[in-house]
Structure formats: C-alpha cells, structure tokens
Amino acid sequence: MARRYIARLLPKGTVPRVYIFCTLVQAIAFIIAESYALYLIKMSHQSTLKSQWQVPDIQSAVSASVTTYVVYSALFIMAQCYIIFLCGEAVATQNTIQVIVVVLFYFVCLANSVTRYISMFVWPSLAAHMFTRDNNMFLLQVTVVAMYCIALLALVVLSYKLKKDVGWSVFKRLGADISLHRAFMWHQCLVMILKMDVYFVGSYLIQMTALILKADDIETWLQITVFIPFCIVVIVGAFYALAGERRRLMIVIATCLFLSIGYFIFKIARVCDPDILNKPGDPYADSRPFFMITIVVCMLLVIATGAISIMSIHSFGSGLKEAIAYDRLRAKHRKMYATDKTMSDESAQLMDEQGLSPRDRFALD
Question: What's the pTM value of the predicted model, to 2 decimals?
Fold first, then answer.
C-alpha cells in the first residue's frame, strides 16, 4: 500500500524523476550550507564582542551587520524551499514555462551569493571585517558560489531535456487550436510571474521590516498600513481576475502595477542617497547591494506582470477558462479511476494489458 502511494507521488518518466531528485539534493545541500553559515555568523559575532572592539558605536554596527547576514541566510533557505515547490508543481502540471523561470530564479540566487562573498571579503564594511579573519566562512562562501554555478548548469541541462520530454503535452490537453494555445501560454506566464511576485515582494518586505524600518519612523507605518496591504490586494486580485477572466478588474490591477513602478524608483534613489552613503549610521551599510538586487528584480517583475496582464486580457473569452475546467475535471476522473497514465506511450501498453479497446482508450482521452 505504501509503495503504491509513493509510486503515485513520483513523476512519470526518467527525466522528470531525475529533475526532481537533483532539485531536492541541491536544495538540501544549500539548506545545510546556509545553516552552517548561520552558525559561523553567530560564532564570529560572539568572538568580536569579546575582542578589542568595545566602543558602543562599533558594537552596534557589528550587531546590525550580523542581523543583516542572518536575514539573508534565512532568505536563501526560504528560496530553496520555494524552488522545491516550484519544481514539483512544474513537473506535476508539465509547465515548461515554470521550468524556465526556475532557472532564472537560480540565477538570481547565484547573483546574491556572489554579492554576499564580495560584501564579506572584497569590499567589506567596517563591521563586516570580522568575517575576513574567519577561514571557515571564506571557504563556505566560495563553496556556495561554486555550488550555485554547478546547480545552475545542471538545471539548464535538465530543463532543456524536460522541455523536450513534456513540451507537446499541451496539445493532448487542449487540442490543436493555436489561438487557445496562445491564450494558455499567456495564462501560464501570468500565473508564473505572480508566483515570482509572491516570493520577491515578500522577500523585499522581510528585508525592509527586519533591517531598515524603525518604530519611530513614519515610513514604517506607511509601509505597514499602505504598501503591504496594497501588495496583498494586487497579487490576490490578479489571481482572482485571471481565474474568472474578469476584464475590468484585470485592467485595474495592471494600472496599479504600472503606477507602483514609481515607488521602486523612489526606493532606489533612497538606497543610493549620497547623504547617507557610507556615512556613520548608514542603515544600508551591509544590505545595500542585496537591496538593490531585490528592488530591481521586483521592479522588473512588476513591469512584466503589468505587461502580461494586458496580453492576458486579450485572451479572455477565448474558451480557455472552460478548457482548463474541463482539463481539471478529466484529470480528476483519471485519478479516481486510475487512468492517469494516458500521457505517455506506457499508457497505451497498460490499457492493452487491461483489455481496453482503442475506442475505450480514446473515450478516456
């Protein structure tokens, strides 16, 4: 019974299984590495506090630097958990667009890991000099960068093979209507970009809340009362409008997205303000490069989400909603009656062994 349940959870085919296996191995390796990084950060902090740096301002800067790197190590772990979810869902739904986006996600993680190495050992802040004496931290950061390069290369190869393996499955699901396929492509693109919005906007909010905002700052309350609810309403509203093909709501969502570009431009100017750049009390002393990557990625995602939302509006009413509903109903039927193997050549052999005629097979399809 347990074997049968595990077999149903595993994806069908060699390439999808290798893809999931590699994703899990890479994620576990990165989570272990980041957990070790958290331990080294804690030990460096304790040794620094016991050293000759007893000036209160320097100790405060050291504590802020430690908090910064702890937050980003935690975000790296969150990213790997999210990648596992994206990869598993991509294989389960045979979503080749999501497979490609996972590769881009890994590239952003690689950029952040290189940025962390540079901020610790190439151009460290005054407080981050505590890491330059830690050989274990140096070896770990070099190892993490090398691991991301290898993982990215492996994902590129596996994603290419997976795309070739399941790329034609959409024709089995939606038929040969080209206009329906085009509408489905924009639908998948928008769903995927919204999933990226969830992570990167959430990551931005975590960074702002944990590292920058203060209780006596008016920006803190604007962030809590305006920006966070705005992000939640826009993202949830976009999913809702797309699922129900609500044209007017999607237009409102796209307008809000384009208007929010001004906010990210303001944040870039704020982070790079020369009045605080590398000055005492600089709130972005250690987090500036990470913030810039996150803000730029968020702004690009907002632009892409708005543009794809407009393209998706043109596909509303094309019959895609009904086709997706029918495909889900058919998938539920296959799951209930154990006929979910009709997507590969193995299904025909299985049905022949069960004594099903070609007419019955097409009826199930």
Answer: 0.80
